[in-house]
TrEMBL record, chains A, B:
CDD domains, sorted: CobA_ACA
Matches recorded under Gene3D superfamilies: P-loop containing nucleotide triphosphate hydrolases
Swiss-Prot/TrEMBL keywords: ATP-binding, Cobalamin biosynthesis, Cytoplasm, Nucleotide-binding, Porphyrin biosynthesis, Transferase
Coiled coil: none
Provenance organism: Lysobacter panacisoli
Record pathway: Cofactor biosynthesis; adenosylcobalamin biosynthesis; adenosylcobalamin from cob(II)yrinate a,c-diamide: step 2/7
Pfam family, one: Co_AT_N
Functional summary from the UniProt entry: Required for both de novo synthesis of the corrin ring for the assimilation of exogenous corrinoids. Participates in the adenosylation of a variety of incomplete and complete corrinoids.
Reaction(s) the record says it catalyses: 2 cob(II)alamin + reduced [electron-transfer flavoprotein] + 2 ATP = 2 adenosylcob(III)alamin + 2 triphosphate + oxidized [electron-transfer flavoprotein] + 3 H(+); 2 cob(II)yrinate a,c diamide + reduced [electron-transfer flavoprotein] + 2 ATP = 2 adenosylcob(III)yrinate a,c-diamide + 2 triphosphate + oxidized [electron-transfer flavoprotein] + 3 H(+)
EC number: 2.5.1.17
The protein, known as: Corrinoid adenosyltransferase
Protein's gene: cobO
């Protein structure tokens, strides 16, 4: 209890209650103003950790609501991951595609990369045109956009024409400006520090 | 094919292969330098979306590897979420606690908030002292630290003394400097834009 509060005969607990009450009113007003109810486009970009893992967290949330979900992983794929092992178990609700044959510096074959990305894009476009899909995760698509393996115009057209309640989450560093413009929620994952730079291997359960 | 490349008789595909080869060597050298193999502390902070969902994505990854996992949600709890509905299904591998009784501005009772946070902390501390847990997610703990409901010193001591292979992920805006210092990987989720500000309700599968 602060001395000033004591002098006025008002306890710290009462101050706390008053502050909480004002905060509640503010939050309630904001919630009351947010009345639009529709599918959203979420973009996770930047150089920091958490872009893909956040996408997979939203996938888990969606499954918690019984949503029908689609996943296309555009770039990774030469190694198996924990997320793939886990989410492939729910094949009644999740259609899961890993289309990449590894990072492009692993394949060293531009022609093969373009064919692979094109096949992944065809699946993504089909999901976004199908109202059966409540949630679509296009993991590392921004990398394929930056390399022009996937057409930005085609993506923007698919997003604009998708079913109104469908959520689409797109991840990867270097999101193009026009995608940021089209999106509803965009987060830049900024590196403060990373274990890898301190010589720690990529860890199962964290990166893999 | 660029004109310069043609003149030299080197195709764009060959250039691509050379660039990819150099990139591969660089990445391989970096991977070779990262030789330390141990549990990491990951902190997701900042005002943007993706702090908790990234934590839940890493939880899914961990389950993909068959890890034994613990989750304590410190602040949320007055409403049910997709992540809770989903991850509670895996009670053979996940011990899941939702300790908050809602945001503090909902309870409006500091005494009750402190008791609730203390009970959540006791569970978190027990998990971090138990080598059976491979992965521990302390969701929104930073909020409880900022409000001094949980002791930063106690947290730092538990982190330092935890089993060497255990991963701990801590989320919430306003991570304290000493926690950033102790952590291995820290990401600031920065808001570029958010649907809520455009009047769109929190969406199942995305925020809830």
């Amino acid at each position: 209890m602060s001395r000033g509060s004591e002098r006025l005969g008002v306890s710290e607990d009462e101050h706390y209650r008053e502050r909480a009450q004002r905060k509640k009113e503010l939050v309630d007003r904001r919630i009351a103003r947010a009345t639009i109810d529709r599918g959203v486009i979420v973009v996770n970009t930047g150089n920091g950790k958490g872009k893909s893992s956040s996408g997979f967290g939203m996938l888990a949330r969606s499954l918690g609501h019984g949503f029908r979900c689609g996943v296309v992983q555009f770039i990774k794929g030469s190694f198996s991951t924990g997320e793939e092992a886990f989410f492939r178990r729910f094949d009644d609700l999740v259609e899961y595609h890993v289309m990449g044959e590894g990072y492009t510096w692993e394949t060293q074959d531009r022609g093969r990369d373009i064919v692979t990305a094109g096949a992944a894009w065809d699946i993504a476009a089909r999901m976004m045109s199908d109202e059966q899909f409540d949630f679509v995760l296009l993991d590392e698509l921004n990398i394929a956009l930056a390399k022009e393996y996937v057409s930005l115009d085609a993506l923007l057209a698919s997003l604009a024409a998708r079913p109104p309640r469908q959520h689409v989450v797109i991840t990867g560093r270097g999101a193009p400006d026009a995608l940021v413009e089209a999106a509803d929620t965009v987060t830049e994952m900024r590196v403060v520090k990373h274990a890898f730079k301190a010589g720690i291997k990529a860890q199962h359960g964290i990166e893999l």
